[in-house]
Each structure stands twice: as C-alpha cells, then as structure tokens.
Amino acid sequence: MDLVRLSLVNQLALRLSSDGRARQSYLAQDRSSGRIFTLPRALALALRRVQAAERGDAEARKRVGSEELRDVSGLLGQIRAARGQDRLTRRRFNPVFASFPLIDLGPLQPRMQPLARALVGPGFLVFMAALLGAALLLGIRSDWAIFSAYRNMFSLEAIATFGLVAPVLKIFHEAGHALTATRYGVRLRKGGLYLIGLYPMPYVDCTEADVSARRRHRIAISLAGILVDVTVGLIAFVLWYLVAGSYWQVLIGHVFVFSTLNSVLFNANPLTRLDGYYVMTDLLRRRNLATRASATLADLRLWAMTTGLAGSRPREPRHWGLVAYSVGSFLYRLKILYVIGFALLPRYLGLGIVVMAWGAVAMFVAPLMQDEIPRVHLDDAARRRRRWMRAGLAGGLVVALGFVPLPYHLRLDVAADVEGHYQLTTQSAGFLQALAPGGPISGGTRLAALENPALRDRAEVLDANLAGARAAYESVRGDHPAKAAMAARQVMSLSDQVAVSAREIAGLTLTAPADGVFVPSRLDRAGAFLPSGTALGAFLPVAGGAVLSGPFPERYVDKFQQGPVAAELRIAGEYLTLDPSAAALRTIIGVDRASGTRIYQLTIPADLTPASLAGRPGALRLTFAAEPLVCHIKFLIQGLAARFREAQMADRSGI
C-alpha cells in the first residue's frame, strides 16, 4: 500500500522500559519539546513499523495496515496539537511554582565527562567510607557533642543560615545528578531555577533518563543527590571538630543539621516526590506512582462525595495500596509542617506564620500543580449530590466543633523523683576521696568518702579545750560555786561544739541506709572540693513505693488544678494505672530558655519499688476532663500566644 509521508514520526524517540517485568512500558519522547508519552503495546509496535517505513524499509511498508496508520496519525495529531498549544499559550507567571531554564547543559557534557568518570564510581564510595570512619572516631571521642547543634535548629541564626546556604548546597546536590547522568550517557536538557513560593532553588533536567537509561542507572542518578547531601553532612561533621571554639563551628553545625535533616526528612524519603521517591518507584518498577495514587484517591473521594454517581472506588489490592500511599504522603507532609511550624510559632510568631505558609505551598500546592490531573465533568445529578454532601459535611463539622466533647491528653516523660526523694548529697564540705560505683548496694555499704583537714583540726582543738574546761571545773567545783557554775557552762558549750564537730566529721562518710541501687552523679576527679549539699547521685531503695517526677508544661496548670481524671504509666513495655488524685505539682524557680515558660515539676506515686526505676524512664499519660472541640482549638491558640509573649519577655530580660 502507499504510505502517506509522516515527517513528524522521525522526531519521536521510541524506547522500551527497562524495568524487566512481564508488563512493560513503551515510551515515546518528542525530541522537540521533551515531552514523554506512554503508549499501548499495539500503538508502539505500529509506530515502530511506520518509522522503519519512513526510513525506506520496504518490508515494514508492506506490513503497515490502515488501522495502524490511522492510530499513528492520531498520535501525531495529538503531538502537533500539543506543540501548537505550547506556542500559542502564553503562560502567566506563577510565583507558587515556576521554573526558569537558564542554560542548555547538553553541549557541556563532553567537557564534564572526565570529571564524571573521576567522581562517579567506587572511588567516591571509598571517600565516603573514610569520612564516615573519621566521623565515628570523632563522635565517640567527644561523646557526640555535635548533636547539640540540633537544639538550636529553630533559632533565628539557624533559619537565616538555612535561607542563605540551602541554594548553595542544592547546587552541589544537582551537580551530583548531572555528573552521574553524564557518566551513564544520559543527555541533560536544561538547568535553571525553580521558584517555589518565591524561594529560588537550582535544578537540572534529567528526564532523558526515563527513556534512555537502564533501571539501575536511573537509580544511581536519583541516589547521587542523596549521597552528595550525606557527603556534605560528613564533611561538616569533621570540620565542626577542627574549628572548635570559633564562630565557624556554629555555622558549620547549622550546615550539618540542614544536610542531614534534608536528606532524612525530604530527599531520601519516598513519601515526598524527591530523590527517594524516584529510587523507590524504580525499585518497585512502578512509574508515576504519586500521580496514579493522587488520581486514585481523587476518584475515591469523588465516588464518596457523589455516593457512587461519579468517580470509582478501588476494587483491587494494588489500587487500595495507591490510596494508602497518597494518604500516607499527605499525613507525613502535614506532620512535618506541624512540627516545624509549631516549633517556631511560640518564639517567632510572624516568622512561624510565614514559614508555615511557605511550607504549605511547597508541600501541598506545588505538587498538585505538577500532577495536572484532569478535572471530571459531572452531570447535574452528581453535582447536586456533591453539593448536598459538602453541605452535610460542613454542618457536621460545625456540630462536632460545638457539641462533641473530647478529653485533653498530656504525655510526660517521668523518672524516679531524685531531687525530691532519692537524692544523695554531701552532709559536710570536703575533698572527695572515693565514690562507690553505680549498681546494687547492700545496707551499710560506704557510698562516698570525703576528707576535710580543717574539720579534724578543729575537732582536736575542741577536744583539748573541752578537756581543759573539765579540769578547770573539777578544780573549782567544791571551793568556788560561782566559778564552778561558769566552768560548767563552758563545759556544756564545748560539749555541744564537740558533738556538732563529730556529726560534721561523720558526715564526711555516707553509707547506704538500706539495700538498694546507687546511681552516682558525674563529678570531678578524686580530690575535688565539694561544698555541703552537693549532689553525689541517687539512692533507690529496694523496698517501699516509688515516687515519679517529670517536667510539667505551664499551660496545663489550670487543667491540673481542676483535677486529672486518669493517669497511665508506660514503663519498659508495661502499662500501670495510677491514682490521678495523688499527683502534685511543685514550682521550680526559673524559666525554660527554649520555650520561655515557667518550670513546674509533677510528682506522682506508683506501685513500684524505687530500685526498679534505675535507668528506666517512663511515659505518663494524663487525661483531663472532656470539652467540645472548639475549646480545644481555643486552648491551642491561647497556649501559642502565651508562649510567644513569655518567650519575648524572657529574651528581653536576658534570662
């Protein structure tokens, strides 16, 4: 048959997916626009025959049927229409999610080949292993002091560092993708900037890998950015110890925190559509997983909102798996937004609102704009049913907020009440000579020994003075009653001083009052001078009931004064119900620097032996009286506002 000349067909690159499964994917890429189309097997075979015929293959020309030619012509018509739409449609600037191509990286790849061959390979992994070994050695020797940088991760300095350093680190991240793609022969397209919520981030277009790279090479390209982030984090880890005591240590600590958290929470996490997601989809051989999951969830939501008139519900386990992935991804992003936002809101109210708004745009709005899921056209009946369903849900929400009561729950970290009940302190000041090791102790065992030469010298002087006073009393007792009375009073006074001195000397040695467990404190080396009242550790008896304590947040004080209704202790995998009426609060003078709130301590007895609590912290769950949901929201807002005000007061007073 005569074949109509189809010039556009030669501008399509047709490739078979290298997933290696029985259900294979056929991909066609428009070399002009870079768009990738997934084709059915029959259409892909037809396109292949037409391309061969266009190249002059007479046998292929004979095998092309009219139906196949019609299907290929339809595909080419869609591609022409897409090109025309791209030319005619002037996209408006979108500050939520916009990309700005700046440079064509393809012509630069031949120059990048030597560097790609040098860096992408076993040598880089050996370098990472050496960094990891150095980091482990430094961390063990310093008791992992670098992790103190996480405590200041929400400070203004750390946030400013993130804003300035993140784009720079992203350049290294994207360079890892680009070099790995170059190493495996994948053509790079454009490089430029993404504008996400008005915040610029570099990017490299490696989409050619979808049609030209083998599966393991695509995985390597996706992993390259994660490995670069980890490498940057390890380098910062080592440098942090080399510049100790300088401002650079603070800056490098922030870089370490950002690199590690960015890799763990975002880049390497398959629930966010970044590198870890693409690694997972290639490992599972499930491309476009997020888009299909979003579409499946949208169909289920539409089916539920129209009570079956539109949309569809999953009927196979794999479809329910897509729904679970979409819901899990949404909840994870919501959790990250909640943690970051509510860590900032109590101290930096305006900044916290800005960060939460930007995070919501980056994690929820931008992915929706990338998916481009087509809208479903509903008939009148489906639209009416959806409107009624939405009105019903809104009304139900209003009713729930105003009339559905829920109890307040508070989780506290608790341990043995050392400061109030089990603390062992020095009775007399002295130089530390010996301290018992931690562990089980029998009653009467010496726990600590101190030495104070001044006390012993004073005791000797008092003993000598007492002996002289007694001799003077005996010499005048029968002859001079007035002198005898004065001498007797002096003997009594010196006897009292000798008794006090004896108690002070006895206080230099501390013994276990009963069988129990001794947990020593970290003190200076032997020979250090310890004032009276210095904590030596905790002594936990093996008999009697235990008393637990833990920090209590100030905003729950009013709830506590009304009385908790239930208390449950979880310790070592076991649950124990406690008496909530036995709980008590004590106020500790001071302000928590992190939150700006006053410090309270909760104590509660438990049907446990104190010794059983040694090295076993627990979690206490307090339940307070139920109130409507609107009261919970009001309580949350009031708590945030109060913490913000108190944090500002603490900052101004320099506490």
Automatic annotation (TrEMBL):
The lineage's top-level taxon is Bacteria
Membrane topology per the entry is: Multi-pass membrane protein
Locations listed in the record? Endomembrane system
Is Magnesium included in the keywords of this UniProt record?
Answer: no
Needs which cofactor? Zn(2+)
Q: Which part of the chain is the Peptidase M50 domain?
A: 168-243
* Keyword Membrane belongs to the record: yes
Residues crossing the lipid bilayer are 118-140, 219-241, 247-268, 322-342, 348-368, 388-408
UniProt keyword terms in alphabetical order: Membrane, Transmembrane, Transmembrane helix
Instruction: Name one matching Pfam family.
Output: Peptidase_M50
- Name the protein family: Belongs to the peptidase M50B family.
Stated name of the protein: Peptidase M50 domain-containing protein
Organism in which the protein naturally occurs? Rhodovulum sulfidophilum
